[in-house]
Specification:
Elements: E1 4-11, E2 14-21, H1 22-35, H2 39-49, H3 56-73, H4 87-96
Antiparallel strand pairs: 1-2
Length: about 100
Amino acid sequence: MTKLANRVISIFDRKTSMRLAVPEWTALDDICKREHIKRKKLFELIEENKDPKLGLTSSVRLFVITYCHNLIFGSAGKIKLAKAEYENIFKTIETMS
């Protein structure tokens, strides 16, 4: 079974904790490296664009899944974003790269 790792993160100058599986943290770090964006900035973008009914941790997990899905299938033009609210995040990341 995969271990969960609890980390203190900073979003908009407030601290909170997030608990994700180690591979999820690794995936986040890989996304940030690939997109040349700091993890803090990515969390802030997710927080600003997430469904208000979802918590931040769930939204981060959904973002990672959506990002990876788009990376695999999006270039072939066969899918669209699973959640429309993440379109702003992808557009922002594209302008930062």
